[in-house]
Design a protein that fits this description.
The complex is a heterodimer of chains A (about 350) and B (about 325). Chain A has about 350 residues and is α/β, with parallel strands linked by helices. Chain A contains eleven helices and twelve strands. Chain A folds into two domains: about 250 residues, P-loop containing nucleotide triphosphate hydrolases (Rossmann fold), CATH 3.40.50.300; about 60 residues, no CATH class. Chain B has about 325 residues and is α/β, with parallel strands linked by helices. Chain B has two domains: about 220 residues, Rossmann fold (3-Layer(aba) Sandwich); about 90 residues, no CATH class. Chain B is globular. Classes of the chains: A alpha/beta (about 350), B alpha/beta (about 325). The complex binds adenosine-5'-triphosphate (2 copies), iron/sulfur cluster (SF4) (2 copies) and magnesium ion (2 copies).
């Protein structure tokens, strides 16, 4: 194992496009789901990945685990290049990097008991004797807060929170070093979300896993991450310390995202974005956010901003105005209407 | 008299009680939020009130619109209410928009049904409604199919359909749950603007306390088929009284300040067929005492406009208002 400061996961310039056809007779168009994403996750660290539906979060998650091949770019896990998906070397690596999916019911097989499904990765990777596997399943179930009698149940007879715990238990059963969670709490009730967030936080601290936490919920991301990356239309547009990003967002899209968080007792004004979410099949020129951006400048229409550290405080942001390279079209203060 | 007065509404599916005595009033022009976790009965409260539940459901109690009883009322009395005086945006968007019909036609049908409009007049009104809910280029978009619009735009279409009957009350069931936060902010802003412009009342159903608190002036928190706390939005946050409400707030990750472990509510929502003895929240409640498994608490007033269904909730003094003594005596009496 490669202890120390080296990153557990390093993804460089990942890109992935899909060919989609609109309607039966539509012409095939290219959707750039992920368009040059670089990220790192260290051991014991959680990187939160936020952004709107369709911005490429799940695709990024699949790419870093090698579940899907990248068009360009590279992934390094524990210092070694990620083996091609489907190969024996990749399958062997998978026990060290697991994924928790969004919809616990879809992630589980209705026909099998949860006990059997939690044991599955051990069976697949032929880890331990039957007795050891049984013991490990019991231990991991206790770890995620499931009771022993739940092992004999089928997923549909468990509550939502219990199902998601079963999914997490299955991911943890092989003692992975990297856990990629794709919207692990979105399908759950608030009180259950808190349980799962606590659970993931505890587990990560105890097991020193690296974690990629994909979510559209900035609250949850702040709670659990040491770093946050904001995605827009296949690219990371801002990255930094969660509190810094939440309290002083540098990118206009992050600003809108933060101000849209519903908050009990909120009275402050909010930036309401005009227009619809973008269509990834028809990526705007220049900065992809410019059609919705309240401070867009003429430069924004033609030149794509680069993700780089801001001079003042080192915050990584991709925006001409945030870098002071173009004057904002209007004073931001006058935009805070609603 | 409130515009809608729901009294002691209960619903059972077979032997399982899903609603256990709901009391809720909606005044004209008011915005009320209904929050609670999945399965607590938010949707069926309004489905039952509007006579939209399948016949296997046993519905009891009273629902009055402007003083007229509509629960179990004949079709002739119910039809003008549903979609007319009270419009509902259903939780499942797929069930509400027909994928093979153009959106203009769908809004037009609602106009025909509720206002007898047809032809050019209807078309003009469809365009006006689409403008009103903020669908750009309405003149051309009337010919679009639902799949050609974004999720947020389809939600706007559904709001336009609901507005077609010029309702006095709009019941919106999780209208933003499937949407991105920036689009959610747009839709909530739209609902607030529409309410201000038309004077209609709004019932906003959501599992998100933040969403309802920003949009509504009064909030009712539901748990296991009952309203366990009800208060003006501000008070729910400054004086949460029911342990479940406090639990919901503790479970919400904070946006600032030190990061601490969240106070999660242990256990899960009881199944209708296995309602606990006494207070339904007792098995999960950190404040529960022995009596909580004996007494089934009903909502009782704590102040003039704040009530909670917890035997340990106490009336409190509010600035400018005397302590609600009457409330205290009612409470004691009900506890006998
Ligand atoms: N297998 C696929 N085939 C075709 N298009 C795809 C495929 N997977 C993703 N896409 C498209 O790529 C884009 C990014 O999708 P992705 O699922 O990564 O987004 P996301 O950020 O996870 O969104 P959400 O929050 O809705 O889960 C979308 O436009 C999506 O439609
Ligand atoms: N047609 C039905 N037959 C049997 N049970 C039902 C039916 N409809 C609803 N229920 C039950 O009634 C209870 C309340 O359901 P309801 O849909 O009102 O919950 P909700 O608060 O709206 O939840 P959600 O947030 O998930 O929409 C649930 O336990 C549900 O399983
Ligand atoms: S680069 Fe221009 S359009 Fe893009 S976010 Fe910055 S100001 Fe807005
Ligand atoms: S009555 Fe008892 S169990 Fe119920 S909420 Fe109050 S303290 Fe908790
Ligand atoms: Mg996704
Ligand atoms: Mg519902």
């Amino acid at each position: 194992m490669n202890a120390g400061t080296a990153d557990l996961l390093e993804a460089r310039d990942l890109a992935r496009s899909y060919t989609v056809r609109r309607g039966l007779l539509g012409r095939p168009t290219l959707v750039r789901a992920v368009d040059g994403v670089s990220l790192t996750v260290a051991r014991g660290e959680t990187l939160g990945l936020v952004g709107e539906s369709g911005c490429g979060k799940s695709t990024t998650a699949r790419l870093v685990l090698g579940i899907e091949p990248t068009d360009t770019g590279s992934v390094t896990f524990d210092g070694g290049a990620m083996p091609r998906s489907g190969t024996a070397a990749w399958a062997h690596l998978r026990r060290r990097m697991q994924m928790v999916y969004q919809d616990p019911l879809a992630a589980l097989d209705r026909r099998l008991t949860v006990g059997v499904q939690i044991a599955e990765p051990l069976d697949i990777h032929r880890i331990g004797t039957a007795a050891e596997r049984e013991e490990r399943v019991a231990a991991v179930m206790a770890e995620v807060g499931l009771q022993p009698h739940h092992a004999a149940r089928h997923p549909q007879s468990l509550s939502g929170g219990q199902r998601q715990r079963a999914v997490i238990a299955r991911a943890l059963v092989t003692n992975p070093e990297l856990l990629v969670c794709d919207e692990p709490i979105s399908a759950l009730d608030v009180s259950i979300q808190a349980l799962v967030l606590n659970l993931l936080g505890d587990l990560q601290e105890r097991l020193k896993m690296g974690m990629l936490f994909v979510s559209h919920d900035l609250r949850a991301v702040r709670q659990i991450s040491q770093r946050v990356a904001v995605m827009y239309l296949g690219r990371i547009v801002e990255e930094g310390d969660p509190d810094a990003v939440l309290h002083d967002p540098a990118h206009p899209y992050t600003q809108a995202l933060v101000s849209a968080i519903p908050h009990p007792g909120k009275t402050t004004t909010r930036v309401i974005l005009q227009g619809d979410p973008p269509n990834p099949a028809n990526r705007p020129t220049g900065c992809a956010f410019h059609p919705r951006c309240p401070v867009a400048t003429p430069t924004c229409r033609t030149q794509a901003p680069e993700l780089k550290p801001r001079r003042s405080d080192g915050r990584r942001v991709a925006c001409h105005v945030a870098h002071g390279e173009a004057a904002a079209a209007r004073a931001p203060a006058s935009l805070e209407t609603c | 008299m409130a515009f809608v007065e729901i009294q002691n509404l209960s619903v059972a599916f077979g032997r399982s009680p899903a609603l256990r005595g709901i009391n809720l009033a909606v005044e004209r022009g008011e915005a009320v939020g209904l929050v609670g976790e999945s399965g607590c009965g938010k949707s069926i409260t309004w489905l039952a009130a509007l006579g939209l539940l399948p016949s296997l459901a046993t519905v009891r109690g009273s629902v009055r619109i402007d003083g007229t009883e509509i629960l179990g009322a004949p079709k002739a009395r119910l039809e003008p209410v549903r979609g007319g005086r009270i419009a509902m945006i259903f939780q499942d968007p797929a069930a509400s928009l027909n994928p093979v019909h153009r959106i203009g036609r769908q809004i037009g049908e609602a106009l025909g049904l509720h206002r007898g409009m047809t032809g050019e007049r209807a078309k003009a009104e469809v365009i006006r409604l689409m403008d009103q809910v903020g669908i750009p280029d309405a003149k051309n978009r009337i010919n679009a199919y639902p799949h050609e619009l974004s999720g947020g735009q389809n939600q706007r279409v559904m709001i336009a359909m609901a507005l077609a009957g010029q309702p006095e009350l709009l019941v919106a069931d999780e209208p933003t749950t499937a949407l991105d936060v920036t689009i959610q902010a747009q839709i909530l802003d739209l609902l607030t603007t529409l309410r201000r412009d038309t004077g209609m009342a709004l019932v906003l159903i959501s599992h998100d306390l933040g969403v309802v608190s920003e949009t509504c002036s009064r909030i009712a928190v539901m748990y296991a088929g009952r309203i366990v706390e009800e208060a003006p939005s501000g008070q729910i946050f400054t004086h949460p009284n029911h342990p479940y409400t406090r639990g919901l707030m503790g479970a919400l990750p904070p946006l600032s300040g030190a990061r601490h472990r969240l106070v999660a509510i242990p256990g899960s929502v009881p199944e209708a067929a296995q309602m606990p003895q006494g207070c339904a929240f007792a098995p999960r409640c950190s404040a529960a005492t022995g009596r909580c498994t004996e007494v089934d608490p009903v909502p009782l007033p704590l102040t003039q406009d704040h009530s909670a269904a917890c035997i340990h909730a106490r009336p409190y003094a509010q600035a400018g208002q005397p302590l609600h003594h009457h409330a205290a005596t009612t409470r004691e009496r009900a506890m006998q």
